[in-house]
Amino acid sequence: MFTKLGLNTRTFGKTLGTAMVVAFSLSVPAGIYAQQNGKAGPPTPKASAVADFTGYWVSLVTNSEQWLVRMASPVKGEMRGIPLNAEGRKLANAWDPAKDDGGDPCRAYGAPAIMNVPGRLHITWENDSTLRVDTDSGKQTRLLHFTQQAATLSAPALQGYSTANWDMEGGRGTEGGAGAGLRATASSLKVVTTNLLPGYLFKNGIPYSGSARITEYFNRIEEPDGNSFLLVEEILEDPQFLTGPYVRSWYFKKLPDGKGWNPAECSPK
User: Fold this and answer.
1) Strands (E), the chain
2) Quick one: CA dihedral 193, 9, 250, 88, positive or negative?
3) CB 222 within 8 A of CB 197
4) What is the model's pTM?
5) Residue 5 near residue 169 (C-beta atoms within 8 A)
6) What distance in Å separates the CA atoms of residue 198 and residue 212, rounded to the nearest whole number?
7) What is the CA 253 to chain-centroid distance, rounded?
8) Cα–Cα distance between 144 and 160 in angstroms, integer?
9) C-alpha–C-alpha distance, residues 93 and 261, integer Å
10) pLDDT digit string, tens, across residues 3-58
């Protein structure tokens, strides 16, 4: 079950002695403030991270329903659970795989689809205000910007333009499906992606438009046995092809290192 998530506000002082107020009595460790011309400035998004998402992660596919639509290419006309409108269904039913073989094989690797593609993630900090997510499936790169630049200043792209902020009231584990029973901590990363090129939600031609908007919540989950998991909850809205929000979630398991990391090109099948 997807739980609607809220946001809290942080207030940063202008000097080292100024207190920082954070909802739920969460505190920022001392020493994270940057020194600029002898005065304390606000911490960078990297320094003020509420969770560490860096490292290598592998996707979990643990039930038969996910296996059918993720590990194998769905057959033409398979639209289970997707709130497609009449226009979206028409395009999906008219999809021609023979023509797609000669087209762009990365159309099912855009931001609305890439987290669904089984594989590995490598998450790093590109700089102090940009989190980078690389995928070995399709060799895709997502840049999650904590800066306030308007997405419309960038040209439409396969991965769109993603703005991020630390959310102090993170999501909770969903019931059922992969990772059932896991529960996220009360902190997360909220990401909103727009400015997309049109593409496919799955490799069977189910469309999304350039007007699509994705809201995602990233949560790191620590289990008593020492394993760490990444839960990504996503809400896709598309006024052109969907009748309402399309909500999904994925789990990834933390890996100790990059062993097995093997980037591969996009595949239409």
Assistant:
1) 34-36, 39-41, 55-59, 120-127, 130-135, 141-145, 161-167, 188-194, 199-200, 207-208, 213-222, 228-237, 246-255
2) negative
3) no
4) 0.78
5) yes
6) 8
7) 15
8) 10
9) 36
10) 333 333 333 233 223 332 233 333 344 344 444 455 667 899 999 999 999 999 99
